[in-house]
Write a structure and sequence with these properties.
CATH topology of the largest domain: Rossmann fold
Number of domains: 2
Helix content: 25-40%
Number of helices: 8
Structural class: alpha/beta
Shape: elongated
Oligomer: single chain
Distance between the termini: 13 Å
Strand order of the largest sheet: 2-1-3-4
Length: 238
């Protein structure tokens, strides 16, 4: 919350990767943050989809604005696509401050641990018998893309709740399928390091699980958690 000593940021823009239809998760988070009445305007945009970055910035033109990327890494999408679109926006971006993406926030480890605990309770597995695999997108286009996923795995492991914690990727090694085979048939919970319940979270991860460790549990996309709104506001205030 804003205290008397803090100057509220006038406008907040949430920027998701998106697709042709936008981002339902971003819209839900924006609604939750609007209800807090901490910002004069809260807008949503997508790098791929509608509304675009330039459209959202035009909607808050003239206001001091912070843009929080709803991305999981400071990788290719953040460093190349997002910064490129901000550059293309020209004068509309003159009053915009860019925060770090939500995926690098250390508090995500608490959310992931809570999600994995809930799945263990559902499966009736003792926590210290369970292997956790953080499933991320990954890419070979940018060397930093996997850093936040590895940091999340380290943050989960530091809480010493589960037997083992490791990270795996859909598009670069170590692959999710290989990581699952390595722990099968022991109890395993996969944490989806994704914002939206899109193709990666809802199709690619379950497909890898079905082929490599059908008995594993799955938390789904971490971005579905309402607590992500707290992380967004914290990043905006920084």
């Amino acid at each position: 919350m804003v205290t008397d000593s803090e100057e509220p940021t006038q406008a907040l823009v949430l920027c998701a990767h998106g697709s042709g239809g936008g981002s339902a998760t971003a819209e839900s988070l924006a609604t939750a943050i609007r209800n807090r009445n901490e910002f004069d305007r809260v807008e949503v945009c997508c790098l791929k989809g509608s509304p675009g970055v330039a459209d959202a910035l035009q909607a808050v033109a003239g206001l001091d604005t912070v843009l929080v990327p709803l991305l999981m890494a400071e990788g290719y999408t953040y460093d190349v696509l997002l910064r490129g679109q901000l550059s293309d926006a020209g004068t509309a971006a003159d009053r915009v401050r860019l925060s770090r993406p939500v995926g690098v926030h250390p508090r995500l480890a608490d959310i992931a641990v809570a999600q994995a605990r809930d799945e263990c309770v559902r499966q009736e597995w003792p926590l210290n018998d369970v292997n956790v695999v953080v499933a991320a997108h990954g890419t070979l286009k940018h060397r930093a893309t996997g850093d936040s996923a590895r940091a999340l795995a380290a943050g989960i492991d530091a809480q010493t709740v589960f037997s083992t914690v490791q990270v795996a990727f859909l598009e670069n090694p170590p692959s999710l399928a290989d990581a699952l085979r390595a722990v099968a048939p022991d109890p395993c919970v996969v944490v989806g390091f994704f914002l939206d319940a899109g193709d990666h979270a809802e199709a690619d991860v379950p497909a890898a699980m079905a082929g490599a460790h059908p008995a594993a549990g799955y938390t789904g996309a971490i971005g579905r958690e309402p607590a992500l709104a707290d992380i967004i506001v914290d990043l905006a205030r920084r």
